[in-house]
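for the recovery benchmark. tokens below, seq after
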């Protein structure tokens, strides 16, 4: 499958987040062209500030794979990861990160702040896949809240 087709599955996860009253951010993890895990924002639902879509998805994948290392996997996220989620990505040793919309306020990748750090693992990153859909989903959500 192409990046766009996988990202559409992450977008479906974001819709589940929105239906639950959460900010619509979704994530999936694949390995060898197979879906391993899904996740969406659950911070409000779980009363847990760390329950971002990426963290939920990484937790689900670890349980399914029976390992805290998610080697040779790709994480698709509808919004660029924050520094907390990027730390979890590094700890899980996720190989590739593909995100939809950039996050100028909290995103760690597009702000070029990663050069300041020396991490023991660096995933390969692909940005702006289905960017318009991801941005529109978030913008619509926040416009309805205001």
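predicted aa per position
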């Amino acid at each position: 499958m192409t990046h766009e087709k996988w990202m559409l599955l992450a977008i479906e996860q974001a819709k589940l987040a929105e239906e639950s009253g959460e900010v619509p951010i979704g994530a999936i993890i694949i390995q060898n062209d197979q879906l391993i895990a899904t996740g969406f924002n659950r911070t409000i639902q779980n009363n847990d500030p760390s329950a971002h879509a990426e963290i939920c998805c990484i937790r689900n994948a670890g349980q399914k794979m029976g390992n805290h290392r998610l080697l040779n996997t790709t994480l698709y996220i509808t919004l660029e990861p924050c520094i907390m989620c990027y730390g979890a990505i590094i700890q899980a040793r996720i190989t590739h990160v593909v995100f939809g919309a950039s996050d100028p306020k909290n995103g760690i990748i597009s702000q070029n702040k990663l050069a300041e750090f020396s991490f023991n693992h660096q995933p390969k990153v692909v940005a702006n896949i289905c960017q318009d859909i991801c941005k529109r989903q978030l913008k619509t959500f926040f416009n309805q809240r205001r």
